Amino acid sequence: MGILGQTAIFPAQATTTAARVDMLFFFLCTMCGAVGLLVAVLLIYFSVRYRRRPGDSPLPPPETHSSHALEWFWTITPFFIFIVMFLWGAVVYVDAYRPPDESLRIYGIGKQWMWKFQHPEGQREINTLHLPLGRPVQILLTSEDVIHSFFVPEFRVHMDVLPNRYTSVWFQTTRPGTYHLFCSQYCGTNHAGMIGTAVVMEPAQFENWLALHAEGSLALDGRKVFLKYRCVSCHSATENARAPVLEGLYRRPVHLTTGQTVIADEAYIRESILQPGAKIVAGWENLMPTFRGQISEEEIYALIAYFRSLKRGETPPRVEDYPPPTATPEINATQINPAGAKPTSATPTPANPKAAKP
Amino acid sequence: MTTATLVQPEQQPAPRTERENYLNVAYGVVSWLLTKDHKRIALLYLISVTVMFFIGGFAISVVRLHLLTPEGGLVSADTYNRLFTMHGVLMVFFFLVPVVPTVLGNFCLPLMIGAKDLAFPRLNLISWYLYMAGGVWTLYAMLTEGVDTGWTFYTPYSSQSTHYNVVLTLIGLVLAGFSSMATGINFIVTVHWMRAPGMTWFRLPIFVWTIYATSCIFLLAVPVLAMALILVILERLFHIGVFDPALGGDPLLFQHLFWFYSHPAVYIMILPGMGIVSEVIPCFARKALYGYSFVAYSSLGIAFLSFLVWAHHMFVAGISLYSALLFSSLSFLVAVPSAIKVFNWTATLYKGSIVFETPMLFCLGFVSLFTVGGLTGLFLATLGMDIHVHDTYFVIAHFHFIMVGGMVMAYMGGLHYWWPKMTGRLYSQFWSRLAALIIFVGFFLTFVPQFVVGYNGMPRRYFRYVPEFQVWNVLSSAGASILAAGYVLPLCYFLYSLRYGKRAGDNPWQATGLEWQTGSPPPRDNFEATPVVVRGPYEYHTGKAQNDP
Questions:
Q1: What is the pTM of this model?
Q2: Which stretches within B194-320 are classed as H helix?
Q3: Is A151 an 8 Å CB contact of chain B?
Q4: B468 to chain A: which residues are within 8 Å by CB?
Q5: Could you report the per-residue pLDDT of B209-219, keeping only the tens digit for each?
Q6: 66-85 in B: which are within 8 Å (CB) of A?
Q7: Chain-centroid distance, C-alpha B272
Q8: Hey, what domains does chain B have and what are their CATH numbers?
Q9: Nearest to B462 among A20, A91, A192 (CB)
Q10: Tens digit of pLDDT for each residue in B405-429?
């Protein structure tokens, strides 16, 4: 095929968002094209019509008084056109910002210079992202080093990938195919090499692919992580637990010692693992050491997937073979602070999930 | 058509010995390096920014050559990254930001308001030395080891990841920032206190209004940039955790601080360009500027609103939904005063008597290219559009339409307009018109393909790209080579005119502004007697200058 045959003219529409972004694009092209054309025509017409000709009177042309009505007309008119543009753009953006609840959750990590993805059923990929056709997909994103950006032109979505923070992007694919996944935020030497492939497959094919690459599940991986770091020593969901119970925690409100209430979302879970002192659950003392530097981003993702699936009564039994983490004092919480540490009536029993903390 | 059609017989320069002017009052290197004359300092700046422009232009020429093929075999990835960084840093901080205020503003502002000099001549000289110190320092950092962060210096890449010479580069930028602040203070005080008798605020040429607005932005925004850059320096050197998440910092904070300066900086760059166009179009259409007060107030409106739109660079950076909505709506608001200006410039041509001298060609080029740049800016301000085109070549094309198509065209227009005043010589009309044409055509060919390739999804700062994008990149590089020729041409005929150009006479364009009512080149103290201003700046229908009784 010749070079012109494969030249990009207009990107294919591969998601529901793409069609909406393109509609907006054509609208903007029409409006701006009309205004641009108007200015161009006037510039050319005036330049030709009012050019100085050899036989013209040497006197300067008479004064033209500027019309305030005209000034206000071309001040107000663009203003109203802009309001329409703003509102249309805002609607598309808001919808692209909020994933539907039933979205398939995929976990993505950017690092210099590759993309890593984890599927809920445990499949892991590097620089390739398999996606089911027609199903809303949300990709939770974080970076292990500098800022990257997730960009698939055919999907018309774009989201920066930040270290120490979760961002997310969602889309619903409409067209099977193989698409470039670019990093669009400059990230160092091989920024241009940080290109992955997004593969959109028919649902049956996708299930097939998942089955071929099955590795248990991400939640199961999370359970292993939960045991590996001995989280269960304290978050044991028993009578004398030293830390809040985590069953049913995900997306529930959590009451803090400061009197605030936060939702136990991905960002909260991540922060509580890496910076346990930041938000302390009401009625509990902070005994937890930080896991920063020990736990990887993949493992945190696995834990999040685990907590999403963790239901009442499912916390694994405490493994008594291992002593609790060394940073945790060997004494019971009541002995440290007899007044406040022991859960009181306001604080949860192990079965009460609302005030739990990883 | 030649200039002869414009120059009235009585204004033909008489063959006489040269009058005393700022160029021939003293000779020698010291008389230039220690000068306190705003006109000489303007020429010092002219030489410095021109050198910076050509170095920055050379860097991007290599980049465009490299991008001829998808694999980009010309330079290594690291060299490529250092080249585009050098291009961005030099062009933004050492050319676009200072060029019009320090060259044309420095030269013309005192002349236009009927003053002998700026309010603080020594401060003016110091600001040139600060600019030179920053410039030489940055050039040294760039040419020895280089820096590969892009001109935006996003953290944590700049503060932690890159092993190139960020600290040295940033020190240079901070120095140059102090230069801008000194210039800003100087201009503001001058406009307030040094206007000639009768020069009321609403008799000021629009160029003075825009330089004034620009100076206000300098004073308010540059300190924030200096602070943010110093924090990056401290974080690199001492690992204080401000931006680096590994140290407990917030990488987005840097983007907020950086754009809090760098968005107003866009208007620092474009406002003086708008001022030039507002001088040149009335002069060559022989009409008063249409809607003077609307144009004047819209300059101040732009300066004010420019501080409230910075986060539109961050719509997909992980800011909250509500701040995205707020900053998008404010960004549309700042487009209104720009639209007002375009309509007023166009209306100024109505029923005029238009001649197409070179400055006019550049300024008409400005209006058309700036209009395209402004309209594509609306695409980026639209939230639902930005989620697709953010950080692609669409953005590159958009801001080059504003910065190069707009700003550099306007600067060229201004330079061609005031060159006879600055040097007393006329340049070749044929070659300069040809240059205007070449630059216009080359510009379109360079950047229109980038809109297309951007919408197709080519991200910026890629040293190699997928083959689908090649045709557009080849077109763009071809345009860039035409553009480069267009920029070298003025260098040649301007230098030629210094020695062989025809004498310009005091007022070759028969303009009404005060700066034209004195010698070309002007005497050391600008005017032989302080002018008394009796009318507005653009009363071309009366044929009378601002100080004609």
A1: 0.89
A2: 206-238, 251-285, 292-305
A3: yes
A4: 6-8
A5: 999 999 999 99
A6: 77-78, 81
A7: 7
A8: 35-516 (1.20.210.10)
A9: A192
A10: 999 999 999 999 999 999 999 999 9
